[in-house]
Amino acid sequence: NNDEGVRLVTAAGRRNSPQCVDSKIHHCNLINNILPKIQANLYGAADALMLDPEGYVSETNATNVFMVKGGKVFTPHADYCLPGVTRGNVLDLCKELGIEAIERRISLAEFHAADEAFTTGTMGGITPIVELDGRVIGSRGPITKRIQEAYQKLTETLGYRLPDF
Length: 165
Prior knowledge:
Blueprint: E1 6-14, H1 31-43, E2 47-51, E3 57-60, E4 64-69, E5 72-75, H2 85-97, E6 101-103, H3 108-112, E7 116-121, E8 125-132, E9 135-136, H4 142-157
Parallel strand pairs: 1-2, 1-8, 5-6
Antiparallel strand pairs: 2-3, 4-5, 4-7, 7-8, 8-9
Helix pairs in contact: 2-4
């Protein structure tokens, strides 16, 4: 897990609609993810936060996103994003930890005003978002830390050990 966190910028373009290329499946047409990543690179950000066609938060070009407000965890419905395995694990861990997790539409303004925010993905695990569009969200907060620690324990017990080479 990345404890220091990442900076994001909101993508200029929108996440493609499921009517065009459904983002809920892995496919070879990644131009909708590549263009925002190029924009993020130009702004010196790790990734780009993508919005759905109606302007609600969807995901980044490479990860799912969560925000924390008032001790509750929020994540967008998986309508315009890949319903990631790590995302699902985080929702399950929130239940186990007694943290209310809500899937709903999230406006960009709500995300800018989050107490904490983080991304989830297979490669990065749970990574705090410390800045979005030049607005400081902060360092890894207490809810993010609890979820990261629980996720670390989960990943230590799941899967198969590969042989040492």
